[in-house]
Structures are given as structure tokens and as C-alpha cells.
Amino acid sequence: MHTRAMSRIISFSGDNEFLDSLDSMVEETGYKNRSMFLRDASFHFADISRGDLGNMEDDSETEGVMVIFYQHGVESKILDIRHSNSVEVSSFHHNCLTESHTCVDTLQIRGQVSSLRDIVSRLRSTNDVDRVSFVPAPIREAGCC
Fold first, then answer.
1. Of 9, 108, 128, 135, which has the highest C-beta tally within 10 A?
2. What one-character-per-residue DSSP string does 32-91 give?
């Protein structure tokens, strides 16, 4: 006989206005029910609460995606990052955004928080770099990879 793990139930109360708003969000986002919506919203909130590089311990390891918007002439700085010994870049993509006349590079990157923080800081203070952001990957105990 095969037994299936039972879902654990959590509950909370909300007034009618909150529940109406919640039901609207569930429907608008295409979720089938409140439980799945609230589960994903909780994970999303936990990821946000985990914070950005500024809130992480210097010596901890993290991985995520770095996005750099810039004008031509900055490519050598980005090449330096890609070949740096302080971080590991496992994926890189360059594109020219014709509508905004801007280059954008995305790097799937991993390293110590202090190294990533330093890279972001140096890029932000570089002429012709318009915007730099780092999005940390969510942390899970198990999953697809």
C-alpha cells in the first residue's frame, strides 16, 4: 500500500476586505486556489527579506544574476569580471537594446558576498554604466538542480 504525505494546514484570519482583495489577486494571477498563491507569496517574501548584498554576511557565498546597463566603452570592465579569480561566471549574455540605445549584459555569477559587493560598487562608479543590479537566487534545500 502506497501512502501519500499529508499536507500540513496553516490558517489565519482576515476581514472581508482583505479576503476580497486576496481572492482578486489569486484570480488575476491565474492561481487555482489561495493556498498555492499564499505559498508562493510566502517564498517570495522570504527571498525579499533575505535581502540584497548589503544585508548579507561578507564571507558567505551566494549566487544569482547580475544585470548591467551601460554605453559602449565599458566592455573591458565587464570582461575583467568574467575572467576574475574572485567570482565564478557560469553564463554571460550581451544584448543591444535598440529602443533605449543601451547595452545590457547579464551574468550568472557566484562568489563571496564581499567580492560581489565590490564588483557592484566598482561598476556603479564607472562612467557610462547606467545601472547595476544583483538578484540573489532563492535558497532551497532540494529542487531541480
1. 108
2. SSHHHHHHHHHHHHHHHHH--GGGS-TT-EEEEEEEEEE-TT-HHHHHHHHT-SSEEEEE
| CA-wise closest residue to 138 among 54, 57, 51, 55 | 51
What would the pLDDT profile of 110-124 be if each residue is shown by its tens digit?
999 999 999 999 999
Measured CA to CA, the distance from residue 63 to residue 68 in angstroms comes to 16
The grid coordinates listed for 103 are: 547595452
* φ, ψ (nearest 5 deg) of residue 75: -55, -35
Instruction: Mention every residue, 6+ apart, whose C-beta is less than 8 A from residue 86.
Output: 111, 112, 115, 118, 119
Q: How far apart are CA 137 and CA 127, in angstroms?
A: 28
Q: Reply yes or no on whether the pLDDT at 17 is more than 60.
A: yes
What does the domain layout of the chain look like in residue ranges? Answer: 16-50, 58-136
What is the largest distance, in Å, between two alpha-carbon atoms of the chain?
A: 66
Its CATH class, for the domain covering 58-136, is alpha beta
Euclidean distance between CA atoms 131 and 17, whole angstroms? 39
Q: Which cell numbers in the block locate residue 102?
A: 543601451
Section 23-27 average pLDDT: 94
